[in-house]
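Try this one yourself first.
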C-alpha cells in the first residue's frame, strides 16, 4: 500500500478531512482574522458578533432540549465547567433558590477550603471512564493509572460500567443482568456515599477505557436514577459527539424520556463547552463560572464551518451507512480469523467500531507498515476513529490492509 492514511484522525478530532477547502475558506476570512488578532475576553468584553456566531454554529446543532451553551477551550475544561455548574446548582437548591444570598459562614469557610462554603459533594463517574486530565476531571477519570499517578484526587465515587458479552444477540439475558447489576450498584453509591453526588458523568462509549458499550436501556436507567434522586446527568460527548456514531450526538441513540442535564463537547467540534437547558444551571452571580477567554470565537467560527460542511455532504448519514458496511466487512474477517478479532462491537453506531485483539500492540505497529495509522484503547482494544468523510472504498482499503496484517 503506497498511500498512508489515518483511521485515527488525531484521536478522533478531525471531522471533515485535512485541508478541507470549505474550512480553509472560513479560516482565511476577514471574520476569522479579526477573531484571531483581537481575541476577546468573552466574560467581560464579548465581541459584537459573538451571539451571532453562537446562534449560527454551536447552538444551531444543540442537543434536543438543551438550548444554551457555556463555551470553554478543551474537553477537560468542558467537563470541569459542567462539574462546577452541577455543584452550584445543588447548593443553590439547598439554599432556597438563585435569589438566596450566601451566608457569612459560607464565604469565610470557603476561603479555608472547609464546609459549608466548600461543600462535601462529589461527582459520580464510572469504572474505565475518561473525562480529562485537570484536577476535577482527573478525579473522574478511571481508564489508566498513568493519567492519575502522583496527582492528589478528590474522594469521589466510581460505579461499575457494564462489561457486555459479544455477540450481543447470543448473550441477551446475561447482558441484561450485568446492566441491572451496574444500575443497582450506581443507586447504592448515590444513596450511601459520604460525599453525596451532585451529578453523574458518563460517556456514551467509554473510548479511552477500552471502547466499552452499553445498551440504550442502561442509559435510560441512569437517567431515571438521576431524576429519582435529584442529581444531574452529564453526558460526556467529547469523543462521541458530532456525527461519528451515525447520529450528531451519540446520546440520540438512547431515546431518553428526558434529555440529559448537560452535554459536554470538544474534539470534532474544534471548540469546547457544555450545553444545558435549565436556567437554574446559570451562575446566579458574576465570576462564578469565569476565566479570561471563556471559549474562542475563532474556534466557534471553525465549528460553524464544520457544521455547514457536514450538512452539505450529509455526513452523519454517511457515517451510519459506511459504518454498517465496514462492520459487515469486519464480521467477515472475524468469521475467518476468530482468534484475531474478538468481541467485535459498535454495530449500529456508525464508524465507532472496535474489537479486542490478543496481539493488539503488534497489530497497530504492523498496520503502520502497510500505510494505516490506527488506534488502541484499554488493554486489548483496536478502535477505529475515521473522519466523517470516510467512504466505502476507504473501508475496502482498510479491510485489505487488516487482512494482510492478520495473515502476517
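Now uncover the answer:
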Amino acid at each position: 500500500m503506497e498511500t498512508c492514511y489515518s483511521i485515527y484522525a488525531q484521536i478522533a478530532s478531525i471531522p471533515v478531512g485535512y485541508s478541507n477547502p470549505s474550512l480553509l475558506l472560513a479560516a482565511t476570512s476577514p471574520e476569522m482574522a479579526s477573531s484571531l488578532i483581537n481575541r476577546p475576553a468573552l466574560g467581560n468584553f464579548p465581541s459584537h458578533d459573538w451571539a451571532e456566531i453562537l446562534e449560527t454554529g454551536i447552538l444551531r446543532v444543540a442537543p434536543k432540549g438543551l438550548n444554551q451553551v457555556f463555551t470553554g477551550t478543551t474537553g477537560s475544561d468542558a467537563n470541569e465547567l459542567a462539574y462546577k455548574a452541577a455543584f452550584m446548582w445543588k447548593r443553590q437548591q439547598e439554599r432556597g433558590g438563585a435569589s438566596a444570598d450566601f451566608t457569612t459562614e459560607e464565604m469565610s469557610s470557603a476561603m479555608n477550603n472547609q464546609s459549608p462554603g466548600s461543600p462535601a459533594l462529589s461527582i459520580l463517574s464510572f469504572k474505565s471512564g475518561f473525562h480529562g486530565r485537570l484536577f476535577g476531571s482527573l478525579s473522574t477519570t478511571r481508564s489508566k493509572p498513568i493519567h492519575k499517578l502522583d496527582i492528589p484526587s478528590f474522594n469521589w465515587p466510581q460505579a461499575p460500567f457494564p462489561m457486555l458479552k459479544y455477540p450481543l444477540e447470543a448473550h441477551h439475558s446475561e447482558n441484561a443482568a450485568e446492566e441491572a447489576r451496574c444500575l443497582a450498584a450506581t443507586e447504592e453509591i448515590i444513596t450511601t456515599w459520604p460525599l453525596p453526588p451532585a451529578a453523574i458523568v458518563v460517556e456514551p462509549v467509554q473510548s479511552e477505557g477500552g471502547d466499552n458499550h452499553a445498551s440504550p436501556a442502561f442509559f435510560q436507567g441512569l437517567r431515571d436514577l438521576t431524576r429519582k434522586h435529584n442529581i444531574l446527568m452529564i453526558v460526556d460527548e467529547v469523543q462521541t459527539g458530532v456525527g461519528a456514531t451515525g447520529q450528531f450526538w451519540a446520546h440520540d441513540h438512547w431515546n431518553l424520556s428526558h434529555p440529559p442535564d448537560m452535554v459536554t463537547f470538544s474534539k470534532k467540534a474544534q471548540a469546547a463547552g457544555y450545553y444545558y437547558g435549565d436556567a437554574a444551571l446559570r451562575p446566579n452571580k458574576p465570576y462564578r463560572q469565569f476565566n479570561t477567554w471563556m471559549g474562542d470565537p475563532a474556534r466557534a467560527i471553525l465549528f460553524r464551518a464544520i457544521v455547514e460542511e457536514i450538512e452539505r455532504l450529509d455526513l452523519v448519514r454517511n457515517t451510519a451507512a459506511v459504518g454498517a458496511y465496514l462492520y459487515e466487512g469486519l464480521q467477515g474477517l472475524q468469521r475467518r480469523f476468530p482468534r484475531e478479532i474478538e468481541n467485535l462491537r459498535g454495530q449500529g453506531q456508525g464508524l465507532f467500531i472496535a474489537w479486542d485483539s490478543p496481539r493488539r500492540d503488534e497489530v497497530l505497529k504492523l498496520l503502520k507498515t502497510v500505510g494505516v495509522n490506527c488506534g488502541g484503547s484499554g488493554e486489548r482494544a483496536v478502535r477505529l476513529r475515521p473522519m466523517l468523510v470516510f467512504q466505502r472504498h476507504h473501508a475496502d482499503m482498510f479491510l485489505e490492509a487488516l487482512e494482510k496484517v492478520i495473515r502476517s
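Discussion: The domain at 26-311 is CATH 3.40.640.10 (Aspartate Aminotransferase; domain 2). The radius of gyration is 22 Å.
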